[in-house]
Amino acid sequence: MAQKTALIVYAHQAPGSFNAAARDVAVQALAEQGYRVIVSDLYAMNFRASATQEDITGDLKNPELFQYGDETMHAWMEGRLSDDIVAEQRKVEEAELIIFQFPMYWFSVPAIMKGWIDRVLAQGFAFSLQKMYDNGIFKDKKAMLSFTTAATQTMFQPDGINGDINVTLWPLQNGTLHFCGFQVLAPQIFWSPAHCPLTVRTAMLEGWRARLRGLLMEKPLTFAPSGMFDLSFQGGFLLQPKVKEEQASQPYGITTGHHLGKPLPPDNQTKAQSANDNKSDCSN
Hints:
Elements: E1 5-10, H1 18-32, E2 36-41, H2 42-45, H3 68-77, H4 83-94, E3 97-103, H5 111-120, E4 142-148, H6 165-178, E5 183-184, E6 188-190, H7 198-213, H8 241-247
Parallel strand pairs: 1-2, 1-3, 3-4, 4-5, 4-6
Helix pairs in contact: 1-7
GO cellular component, one term: cytosol
Region (Disordered): 248-284
Domain Flavodoxin-like fold: 5-191
């Protein structure tokens, strides 16, 4: 049996950071399970965040109006993407599991990691209109977010000042990872480690280590199946009328994003749901 590969895309400037410690725990725990673990340390690599014409070698298809998505798609098809992008795409291809390890900046990832997403997950390589969401290119791979917050957990509750963390995570987990087809595992959230005593930070890391031992046996998060939608421009990629009728009697929306004007399904973006599990759990 071929050795499994895990990729950790890591973004923190300081070797002594809690994020670095979380990365190291993941490397060790996965290696102990027989994984080959690759780490893309974006700051150490000086990975370029900006998506520009420098990402393409050779002539542009439309030099009069540069359109990054179209040009990089053609460059990927023709083997003309820059070497740093190609190297990261090879890592993605090899990995069964990808973990994004980062501190949350402005309710999202740091700019250098956003640049990795913009540049590496190119059209054609990571998605197309024919291959997206649960029909996506990476549907046989798993991915997850592991991140620290400056805010406390209560600040990211539905009645907290920052709002519901499930809403915050929807663009990254649905709009990026699930869009590319990944089976998205529940995020590992380290709440405000900078303001916790050493004993609490140590317990956080040990909890992460314990979770990693059974990580790939976890159920992924729940998203709306593509089959619920009319996948055509004529139909507007809208929820099918039959599905809307079926959902009318349900107490919650389908997902955090497909709420249908109803209450959000509890913990839709932070916990894998089962038929008998509707209670909120904030044990991340």
